Amino acid sequence: MIRTQNLEFRYQGSDSIHFPDLQCVENDKLLVLGHSGVGKSTLLHLLGGLIKPIRGKIEIGNTDISTLGTSRLDAFRGKNIGIIFQQNHFIQSLNVLENVLIAQSMIGTTPDVQRAKSLLDSLNLSGKYKSKMHELSQGERQRVAIARAAINSPKVILADEPTSALDDEHCNKVFDLMDALTASLKCAFVIVTHDNRLKDKIDNQVVIK
Amino acid sequence: MRIISLAWRNIITKPLNLFLTVTLFSLCIGLMTFMLLFNTQLKEKFDKNLANIDVVVGAKGSPLQMILCSMFHIDNPTGNITIKEATPLLRKGHPLIEWAVPLSLGDSYKSYRIVGTNSSFLDVYDAELIDGHLWENDFETTIGYGVAQDLGLHIGDTFVSSHGFVDDEDLAHDHAPFKIVGILKPTGSVIDQLILTTSATIWHVHEHEGDENESTHADTTEVSTHQTDAHHEEMHGHSQDENSPTTLSAGTINQNNNEGLLLHPDEDITSILIKYKNKTSFQSLNFARNINENTSMQAASPAIEMNRLYSMIGVGADALKALAILIGLVSALSIFVTLLRSMKERKYELSILRVLGGSRLRIFSLIMYEGIIIAVIGFIVGTVIAHLGMEVMAHYLKQDFRYSFTGWRWLTEEWMILLISIEIGLISAFIPALQAAKTDINKTLSEKN
C-alpha cells in the first residue's frame, strides 16, 4: 500500500506545490484527477521516487522512500514500484519479451521467462515475443509497458494518463486489463489522469487543484 | 539478461557505428601487433645468425654489406681475398682466434646460396645431419632443411648452379652437376637456407666456365646486374693449375684446421668467420683495426654493424610507432564520440533502466562495457589483420631473401596489447559512462519527445 503525508515539492525558481494526502491499500485503485499543468506528473514522479519532496512523507509498505539514498531508492523502486508512463520508452536493441525481462535483470533476480510470457499472453501480446519495439502499435507498446511494470510483482503500480489518448472502447479495455492485473497482483494501483471517463469506474478519488 | 549482454546487444544494433569504430581501432592494434611480430622475428633471426661470430674478415668494401653477405646471406660479397693473404688467420695456432671458418660464395641454385666451406661451418650454427652424410668431395653438397623442403630435393638429386643470386637460366653454369649427399636438421638459422659444399667446388665452377666460355662469360657480365659483376671479377680473375683439380675434402678441413686450403695460396675465398678466444682482451680489440689498416682485407664486427643497421631501420620503426599512436588516439576519440552520441540518443532508455531499479553504477558499467566490447572486437580484428599481414609479408620475404618468417606465431606481448586495448576502451568510455550515470531521470522522462 501507499500513503503520503504533507507532500510538498518545488521546482527551482518556482513556487512550491502542496499535494493533498492520499492513500491506496493493496488490491485497490486510486484515481488522482486534475487538469493539465497542476502537477499530476510531478506527483507521479514523487510517488515513484524519481524526485524527492522538500517536505512530507511517502510511505510504501513500511518504508518512507523520501528518506532513501539514491541507490537504495533505485533498488526499492525496481522491486516495489511499477510505473507506466504516458510515453513509454523501451530498449530498442531488445525484443518485446526481453524488454519485459530486463526489469527483472535490473533488480538482480533471475529472469522468469514463463511468467513474462504469461503476462504478455494475458495482455494479448502472445504472438509478439520476438517483435522489435518499433514494429508495435502505440497500444501494443503500452501493454508491453504494463507487463514490464507488473513483472516484479510490485506493491504499487503507478500509471500516468493510461487512457487519455484512447477511444471509449480501448479505454474500457485498458481499464479492464489494469483492473484484472490489480486483482491478480494484489497491489495498490494509482492512476493519475485528467480522463473523466474513469471517474465512474474508481471510487477512491483525489483531485489536485 | 546481464549488463554485459545488454551492452553487446546495444552495440550490434548500430552496425555502422560499430564498423567505423572497430575499423579505426583495429588499424591501430593491427599496426602495433604487426610491428611486434615483425621486429621480434627479425631480431630473433639476426640474433640466431650472429652465432658467436665475433668478427668477419673479407675484401674491402662496405662492412655492413660484408656482414649481410657472409652471415645473413642476403647481400652480395664485397669481393674476394686470396688464401695467401688470409693464411695467418686460417692457420692453426693464431693466438687470438678460437676458430676461423672460410667461406667461398658466388653461386646459387634457384636463388638458394651455395657456400663453399668446411664442416666447421655446421658447428658455428649448431647444425646436425638429419639424413645422409657431409660433403666430402667436390660437387657433393649437404643442403639445409629449408632448401630441401622448399625445392623438394632429396639425397641423390643433382642440379646445376647459376651465378650470383639470380635465378636465371642464362647465368647457369656449364659444369658437372652438384649432387646432394646429405640434408641438415632444421635450426631456425640461416644455414637452413644454404647449400654447402667444398671451397674447391666454387673454384672449379668458375675456372671451368672461365676456360670454356670466355665469350659467353663476357656477355653475361654485360647483362648481369651490378651484384653479379662483383662476383665475376672476384671469382674469375685468378690463375689456376688446370691439370691438377684441387680436391679439398671436408674431412681434412674438419680436423680443427684449414690446412687443406692453405695448400692453394693463390686461390680465393670470400670471407672468414672468426671467433676470438677472448673477445674483451686488448689484442682482440686491436685485431680488427690491424687488419683494416695493414692489409688489403677488412674486418668488421657483426654486433657493431647490426646495431648500425638497427638504428637505420629504427627511424622507420619510430615513424610507424608514431603513426600507430596517432591512429590509436583518433580511434579512442571515435569510440568516445560514438558512445557519447549513442548515449545521448539513448538517454530515455538509460533513464528507464534506472526506473526499473538499475543503479547509477549499473548504467555506468553498461556504457563502460560497451567501450570495452568495441575495444576487444577491435583488438581481435586488428590481431587477425596483423597475423594475416605478417603471413603475406613472410611470403614475400621468403621470395626475396629466403628468410622464413611466419604469421602464425603468437607472442605473449600480444596479451599486453589486449590490456592496452581494454585500457583505451575504458578511457574512451569513461566520460560518456559518467554522464550516463549522472542523467537526471525525472527531467529526461518529463521531456516530451
What would you say this structure looks like, in words?
- The complex is a heterodimer of chains A (209) and B (449).
- Chain A is built from six helices and ten strands.
- By secondary structure, chain A is of the alpha/beta class.
- Chain A has one domain (2-207): P-loop containing nucleotide triphosphate hydrolases (Rossmann fold, 3-Layer(aba) Sandwich), CATH 3.40.50.300.
- In chain A, the strands form two sheets. In chain A, strands 1, 2, 3, 5 and 6 form a five-stranded antiparallel β-sheet that branches.
- In chain A, β8, α6 (168-185) and β9 (188-193) form a beta-alpha-beta unit.
- Chain B is α+β, with helices and mostly antiparallel strands.
- Helices cover 58% and strands 13% of the residues of chain B.
- Chain B is built from 17 helices and 13 strands.
- In chain B, the strands form two sheets. In chain B, strands 1, 3, 4, 5, 6, 7, 8, 9, 10, 12 and 13 form an eleven-stranded mixed β-sheet that branches. In chain B, strands 2-11 form a two-stranded antiparallel ribbon.
- In chain B, β3 (97-109) and β4 form a beta hairpin.
- In chain B, α2 (15-50) runs antiparallel to α16.
- The A-B interface holds A 41, 45, 48, 50-51, 70-71, 74-79, 83, 85, 87, 89-94, 98, 101-103, 105-107, 111, 148, 152 and B 1-3, 6, 9-10, 12-13, 346, 348-349, 351-362, 441-442, 445-446, 448-449.
Output the keywords:
heterodimer; A: 209 residues; alpha/beta; Rossmann fold; 10 strands; globular; B: 449 residues; alpha+beta; 11-stranded mixed beta sheet; two-stranded antiparallel ribbon; 17 helices
